[in-house]
Design a protein that fits this description.
By secondary structure, the chain is of the alpha/beta class. It is built from twelve helices and 21 strands. It has two domains: 158 residues, Lyase, Ornithine Decarboxylase, Chain A, domain 1 (Beta Barrel), CATH 2.40.37; 238 residues, TIM Barrel (Alpha-Beta Barrel), CATH 3.20.20. The structure holds pyridoxal-5'-phosphate.
């Protein structure tokens, strides 16, 4: 499967619009999304639940891209979303996303954030630790309110992934440990609280997972725990949330199973486990972020300066970098990129594709094969839709790029490019 499409003029197209035209109309650096790809991935996940006849919910992990427009697409597709901060929650609410379809994650939610979530009628809070149970109790009392929760646990599964982005192992800052009995204790506290309605359990084992094994081990552990909870505390879960982490293809070296194929196999496995227990399967929730927006996103840059040193790989620099895509500098994430015109011309040289930020580590792609380029050419980095714009910063006081959504051959700007005035709007004179 190719990571990009071209038209008859041999130009890279995004949702049928040439990347060069988008770059010309909106300027670069530019983040572009193919909305149809987002919709198709949500539908593909949902379709697996239907095929397997298992009740399920797709809850988009909006940390992957949290802007008003994405919440609106998610809502149009009748999916849920999860947020991990008051800011993400405020963005979803400003987008008109129904709060009752939102779940609130985070390992250190503040009193203010919990209060804001409760006042806005959050669908559920995914409780992470004892401090939070305590805060939540206080906030619920002050608001005379009730809330649905899931209990987040760490099942001690190490999914096959990059070590910096694993969260499922027992030595994790997230969730209640199962082995030591903390998860049981959390359930007991929650069940004893009349304002809290425990709907079930949650775990997330990591990111960029390419196969089913980790999810299968995870679900086995969670089902076992739930079975214990039923016996010990007469608690029956309505929801089993297995988290996100479905991997995507970033480069031709990646060979993940399709996210929906992973889900299908995991659902079979869950069904089998419940059949053995002679119990019915609760509602299964998943929280994909990357799989929904990652492949749909493209970063467009203009090539500028070039540094050639005899005997060394040249540096080709673009007008963006770690400020709009931190992943390569943060955890050596790898991407593929092509020129917007004639992307399949033969490769003449291998370059470092560098960013413009004042860090030697600001290299977007370390070894990129490209045809000869000239300043002003548009280059497209592929599959940048997840954790790119959402991690963007104003480092070096560079404005963050505009975001454009393309659908049915039409482009729409959904986030404006920041201006210099935006950069200093909160600065005060001394
Ligand atoms: C709790 C939780 N759910 C879902 C996700 C989404 O993961 P991904 O974007 O890899 O699907 C994350 C990512 O860190 C997470 O921490």
């Amino acid at each position: 499967m190719s990571l990009y499409s071209t038209n008859g003029d041999n130009q890279v197209v995004i949702g049928n619009l040439p990347a060069t035209q988008l770059a010309k109309n909106y300027g670069t650096p530019l983040q572009v999304y193919d909305v149809d790809s987002i919709r198709q991935q949500i539908r593909a996940f949902k379709n697996e639940f239907t095929k397997k006849n298992i009740s399920g919910t797709v809850s988009y992990a909006s940390k992957a891209l949290s802007i008003k427009a994405i919440y609106q697409i998610i809502e149009e597709e009748n999916a849920h979303a999860d947020v991990v901060s008051g800011g993400e929650l405020a963005t979803a609410i400003a987008a008109g996303f129904p709060a009752h379809n939102l779940s609130f994650h985070g390992n250190n939610k503040s009193r203010f954030e919990l209060d804001y979530a409760i006042k806005n009628g959050i669908g559920m809070v995914i409780v992470d630790n004892f401090h939070e149970l305590d805060l939540l109790d206080q906030v619920l009392k002050v608001n005379n309110a009730h809330v649905n929760i899931l209990i987040r646990v760490t099942p001690g599964i190490s999914a096959h992934t990059h070590e910096y982005i694993q969260t499922g192992q027992a030595d994790s800052k997230f969730g209640f440990d199962i082995h030591s009995g903390q998860a049981d204790h959390a359930l007991q506290i929650a069940l004893a609280n009349k304002r809290i309605n425990v709907l079930g359990i949650h775990a997330h084992i990591g990111s960029q997972i390419f196969d089913t094994q980790g999810f299968e081990l995870e679900s086995q552990k969670l089902i076992h725990l739930l079975s214990n909870w039923e016996e010990k505390y007469d608690f029956t879960a309505q929801i089993l949330n297995i988290g996100g982490g479905f991997g995507i293809k970033y480069t031709n070296g990646d060979d993940p199973l399709k996210p929906e194929a992973i889900l299908g196999d995991v659902l079979d496995h869950i069904q089998h486990e419940y059949d053995l227990l002679q119990k019915s399967v609760p509602s299964i929730w998943i929280e994909p972020g990357r799989a929904i927006v990652g492949p749909a996103g493209y970063s467009l840059y203009t090539i500028g300066s070039r540094k050639d040193v005899p005997g060394l790989q040249p540096y080709l620099t673009v007008d963006g970098g770690m400020g709009d895509n931190l992943r390569p500098a943060l955890y050596q994430a790898e991407y593929a990129a092509v020129l917007a015109e004639n992307p399949n011309a033969s490769n003449y040289e291998t370059v470092h594709l560098a960013g413009k930020y004042c860090e030697s580590g600001d290299i977007l792609i370390d070894h990129l094969k490209l045809p000869q380029t000239k300043p002003g050419d548009t280059i497209v980095i592929l599959a940048t839709g997840a954790y790119g714009y959402s991690m963007a910063s104003n480092y070096n006081r560079n404005p963050r790029p505009a975001v454009v959504f393309v659908e049915n051959g039409e482009a729409k700007m959904v986030v404006k490019r920041e201006t210099f005035a935006d950069l200093i709007q909160n600065d005060l004179d001394y």
